[in-house]
Amino acid sequence: MDLINRPRRLRRTDAIRRLNRETRLSAEALIYPIFVDETLDHIRPIPSLPGQNHYGPDSVCRAVEECLAHGVKHCILFGLPAEKDACGSSAWAEHGVIQEAVRTIKANHPDFTIITDVCMCEYTDHGHCGILHGHEVDNDETLEHLARIAVSHAAAGADMVAPSDMMDGHVAALRRALDENGFQQAAIMAYSAKYASAFYGPFREAAGSAPSFGDRKSYQMDPHNRKEALRECRLDADEGADILMVKPALSYLDVIRECADAFDLPLCAYSVSGEYAMIKAAAAAGLVDERRIMCETALSVFRAGANMLITYYAKEIADAIEQGEIG
Predict the structure, then answer these.
(1) What pLDDT, on a 0 to 100 scale, did the predictor assign at position 214?
(2) For this structure, is 194 an active site residue?
(3) Per residue in 139-177, pLDDT tens?
(4) 47 CB contacts (<8 Å, ≥6 apart)?
(5) What is the pLDDT of residue 128?
(6) What does the radius of gyration of the chain's CA atoms come to, in whole angstroms?
(7) Is 247 an active-site residue?
(8) How buried is residue 12: exposed, middle or buried, by Cβ count under 10 Å (0-12/13-18/19+)?
């Protein structure tokens, strides 16, 4: 057959396929979530997230050392406090769970990148992401508390703060507070397009952050909306965000693509707990090859345009990159 164009020529061998890859992954782009429980000594497995752990303040460096052993150099910290109240006051306590975890990690691993989640749902006794007036979260009053949290994290040594609350104006409030307190170098990774998703269940159990009533649909985004994500990203960019984020990842690859095309800021995607748990459950049932599914889903996120990925599989993906299974 007289064919001039034969795309299979570039698929003929493994070496040729690798040479022509359009999307390349690096362990440098992976961020590992770490849960720190103020009440815990040592380590406790998380039932809702097989293979993941709660770390006590005395063992958080073990989580970091495990990351470094696999070539993962960045984490995002989530805290489980000993006490909760209506305004989440332990979230900005000088010696709070995250503040102490940051100090401990930086004392032992100063070059390890620490991103801290800035939200109130893990610290409030009602589980919502801000200050309640009745059953409504007060946007502007919440901003004042979020700013206090961010400043306390930066003061402890965090490299980056990541507001996940989805309050209007949160990036501007954090940027102003950080700058006024001398933390101009602290970066902001904004949860810009965070959807009101059904994929968060295992995380909420792990972090003890499920709302005690209602839901978060009045502040997290409607999964039906695509253009709204662009608006949210634009607002965060204009307010001073250093990195934008889309969360969750797999069901929102179209949003990742559009945001990557529309903005020149780095874009993070968060492969959330439900995505991880589904792969784990399917693998445990013998229905899928866990390693291949893990690699393929991570690849899809980067192919869609993400520059970095928060994932519970960060260590395993880094190993797969090192071993040539993906990359």
Answers:
(1) 59
(2) yes
(3) 999 999 999 999 999 999 999 999 999 999 999 999 999
(4) 205
(5) 79
(6) 20
(7) yes
(8) exposed
From residue 239, alpha-carbon distances to 146, 174, 188, 232 in Å are 15, 9, 10, 11
Determine phi and psi for 94, rounding to 5 degrees: -55, -35
Q: pTM of the prediction?
A: 0.95
Instruction: Give the per-residue pLDDT at 218.
Output: 81
> Is the bond leading into 266 cis (omega within 30 degrees of zero)?
no
Asked if 96 and 182 touch (Cβ cutoff 8 Å), the reply is no
- Do residues 201 and 241 lie in contact, with contact meaning Cβ atoms separated by under 8 Å? no
Q: Annotate 54-93 with DSSP letters as a single string.
A: EE-TTTHHHHHHHHHHTT--EEEEEEE-S--BTT-GGGG-
Q: What is the pLDDT of residue 213?
A: 67
3-state secondary structure of 226: coil
Q: Kindly name the residue from 84, 194, 280, 315 that is annotated as catalytic.
A: 194
> Which positions of the chain have pLDDT values less than 70?
212-214
> How far are the Cα atoms of 41, 116, 118, 191, 282 from residue 64, in angstroms, in the given order?
16, 14, 20, 23, 28
HSE, CB side, 13 Å, CA atoms: give it for residue 180: 11
Catalytic residue of the set 73, 84, 247, 315: 247
